[in-house]
């Protein structure tokens, strides 16, 4: 009685009979006629079989039933939907045998049949699972078998998807993959497809595994569909990228690439699986961006064109695309750096060409750089000065332009910003006169540029100036020029606002450190003390009871010699500088000069005053008998100290008496060059011709005679005398060489101080490390020359500050206390 056993109530239970009941019920379920079935009775039958240890037979019979049903009924229903073009899609020939519309309709019929079969199978197996619940819980668990539901899913995989459509033809899953890929290609080509149908079949592939063990990464979707999808997508986008590079402009390419990436993300969400999103994005990025970025950037309509024509949206797309594949944006930053360098080189070359152009005629400028007004109000500014200001303005315009690109198109990306800043620094530091030109730019703004500006506009100007300074490697050279220009502004009262000057110093202190601004701050301190000193001297004179109305009033600036770059004023030769200390003053001036010296020596014993006559100016009242329409008139003349001394000579002479050049020099001891330039202003310049020159010519020559001009006339009461200047506000070659020599000397001292400081702390160091630390310490001031450092180390060894360590494995030094 192999297939008979006792029931729960003691009656025999026949396995075959019971199975027939179950099998009949299962057929009813699969044919959707289950409404009349008693699931409780069916459950009890299955329960009895398992209870009598026949679970294995029941399990196998159910599995065989499902296999037969799937291979016999379901498979035929699905295969019937396959047309010849669909079958040939697996080898690529099917696309040519039917139109896309025909393939789409046929494909949808197949996908619908497979979807319905899969969903029916799941519903039916859900019912069967309820009936066979006890078998799952007891037999499957005890014998480590897959649940009957899982087993049935595996059977669908084997009997439907893995079965060939016909002998020696592809399995159904290959046909399914080809149909889905064909539908996706239609969608990429702009046709409408039934995404829901495809999504349902993808759910099926995601719910089935390669084996009954159901390993998570062994889903059919991941193993049999996704690799082919990614492979065919790569081929499609590779070809599309090449086509777009040939047929479209760079902007269109970027828009298409962005659209394709978004389209594939949407497709994964609506049609395939979201788990594929990152993978397909990577494929599109590789084929349309990573492998094409260099070619895209170098197109005629690429980054260069976009920058030239302010195509910021397209530049933003290029940035956005490359950012997807390269966090450093290598190709884009290289292209942008190249563009900046080329534009910067043009700016530098233009400045060089302008400054080297044939010089214009000498301009009438005052001794200290104040430009005289031409008729009509147009200023004569030297071409090198124009070149200097233009260079800084162009550099700032370049930075502003690329800052806007960086913010608008590149989303203020820090990596791109670092690269752009490096290129801006290279441009500025490649220009040998950069430090001087930047200082001159600040000088012009402090004297004229900030006039009538609001506080916000002044702040913006100061920030522009600091921005350019920030890029300079050789900040010590900039400091040299800035001190020269500041010196002139302060002494000649050319600055528009002392408060703004101090704001600039404060910004420099924040940017460059205290050591950079020490001497600059000391210059302001000297000016404040000088004002107090002048006020004190005037009170002292008032207390003396000297009420002479003709007494000369004196304003003095007492400058610390080590702080002020007095060489900024004209006359660099030693003879001229020596001559200035021996100037012969008129008696009235000498008396005032001696009085101040006596006053000062009482307040500051031990200090020596050296009068810088070339730097002073004077207000003189001059009387001319026929100045105003033939009637007498007194004018207030502002002129240099030298011009004042020359004019005072003619006070004691009859109006018809003249003096030669040599006689004037003998009576004043003014250096020859300074004397000639002042005489040009007093006897040649049309508006300030207070003296008559014989013979009349532009140049001042030996033997020329000068006399009081009784016929001078002018409607202007206050007259400013400029001094004819042949020089530039920008340094000439000789002045520049002197500046460089002084700067190199200063650098030498700074290098020695740094080396001693380092060695004093470290006691001993290898040569290479000493070089590295020295360069690091000085890099905020200037870019040290390695050869200069080596020479200074040798000098320190000779002077016994350091000594070589002979037994060291590498060249090393020891500090000698």
Explain briefly what this protein structure is.
This protein has 817 residues and is mainly alpha-helical.
Description:
The chain is mostly helical and 817 residues long. It is 62% helix and 7% strand. It has 31 helices and 13 strands. The protein has a 3-stranded mixed sheet with strand order 4-5-9. A hairpin with a 7-residue loop joins strand 12 and strand 13 (812-815). Helix 5 (100-131) packs across helix 9 and helix 16 runs parallel beside helix 18 (414-430). The longest helix is centred in the N-terminal third of the chain and has 32 residues, at 100-131. It is elongated and about 155 Å long. Mean pLDDT is 87; it is low at 4-11, 361-381 and 571-575.
Topology:
Blueprint: E1 4-6, E2 12-14, H1 15-30, H2 39-51, H3 55-79, H4 84-87, H5 100-131, H6 133-142, H7 148-161, H8 172-188, H9 195-207, H10 220-247, H11 250-270, H12 277-290, H13 293-297, H14 303-308, H15 312-325, H16 330-356, E3 363-365, H17 383-408, H18 414-430, H19 434-449, H20 455-471, H21 475-491, H22 498-512, H23 514-544, H24 574-580, H25 587-603, E4 617-628, E5 631-640, H26 641-649, E6 658-660, H27 661-668, H28 672-683, E7 691-694, E8 705-708, E9 718-720, E10 723-725, H29 733-762, E11 764-766, H30 767-778, H31 786-798, E12 802-804, E13 812-815
Parallel strand pairs: 5-9
Antiparallel strand pairs: 1-2, 3-10, 4-5, 6-8, 7-8, 11-13, 12-13
Helix pairs in contact: 1-2, 2-6, 3-5, 3-6, 3-7, 5-7, 5-8, 5-9, 8-10, 9-10, 10-12, 11-12, 11-15, 12-15, 16-17, 16-18, 17-18, 17-19, 19-20, 19-21, 20-22, 21-23, 22-23, 29-30, 29-31
